[in-house]
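Changelog entry

Holo records now carry the ligand SMILES as an explicit input line rather than a separate metadata file. Below, a converted record for 2-acetamido-2-deoxy-beta-D-glucopyranose, shown in the new format.
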Amino acid sequence: MGAMVTCRRRVLGVSVAAVVLIALLYFNLHQLDFSGLRTFLDESNLDEHPRFGPQHHGQNSSVTNTATSSQPTTTSAPPVQTPSTTPPDKVIVIASTQSDDTSWIGENFPDWQHAIYVVDNQSAPLHTEINKGNEANVYLTYLIANYDNLPSTIVFSHDHRTHHHGSRSPPNIRGSSSTNDIAFDNVATIKALRIPYVQQTGYANLRCIQHPGCPAGLRPLRTPSLFSPMSPQERAMPAAWFELFGNHDVPEVLAAACCAQFAVSRDAVRKRGKAEYERFLWWLLDTPLDDYTSGRIFEFLWHVVFGMGAVHCPDEGVCYREQFGVGV
Ligand SMILES: *[C@@H]1O[C@H](CO)[C@@H](O)[C@H](O)[C@H]1NC(C)=O
Ligand SMILES: *[C@@H]1O[C@H](CO)[C@@H](O)[C@H](O)[C@H]1NC(C)=O
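Structure line, unchanged by the conversion:
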């Protein structure tokens, strides 16, 4: 009986020792795990950098962009030793549809961030909530999603590489070498864009050719019988202006070179609060106006939104020279 008890005690003692040992090991391991995790998290924080995506987007906004970043986050490489992991301080924001070929962006602009939105595919990494309002929807969605984390230069562009409404060198100021020609090509146009000029002016239309749009694209206050059926945005502007800006100061003339492709600086964007861009997007998603009209409302307002006067029609030669360094 006595030997039995001693034996039991011994077994118990060994068991307790084993449990304590296992417990010690367990906590030790976990401590290692946690410290490892902490190091990892610290590195992730250091490594955190501006990316296009919804990370700063309000959870309770009706215009929430549900898209996720289109690029995987790099998890390795201490950022201090590899500054190249910092993303470029400039971004090209593209409004596209799923049938468009946007490969020209990745192929030609490795030194830019890319935010390629697809308006008609909800599975696309970056997309708009609905397909409404043409490119204006994409531009506003990007600004809202990234408002607190914008790179210093932002180019807003359509999906097409070549087109007939962009920038080009007109014959009278074309440089002596044909390599200066940025004819109807968004690659040549964006490559030629002088970033310091964008930083200095805040807004730069990628198109220098004034027609159409300048010198007096819209006259929202003219006699209604003079409104052109080709320009429904002119008739719609006064009400839209009030709904967007909350005042009745719609200018007699609104003008900028056409086509809603432009570059802006972060400073110009942030002269307005994020809530204003949200209001603009709500308006766009809510308006009964068709896309043709609402998209063109914004086409004639971007320069105003980003701080230019109602009529923004810089001389073509000056535009090419200062904005693109062409025809100097
Ligand atoms: C919702 O928006 C309000 C007002 O902007 C803000 O105070 C609040 O923190 C937001 N809530 C969430 C969950 O984002
Ligand atoms: C929509 O986007 C997803 C994700 O990028 C892609 O796999 C799918 O093919 C796209 N759908 C169409 C019809 O292009």
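Spot-checked after migration. The chain has two domains: 1-44, 89-324. The two ends are 109 Å apart (CA to CA).
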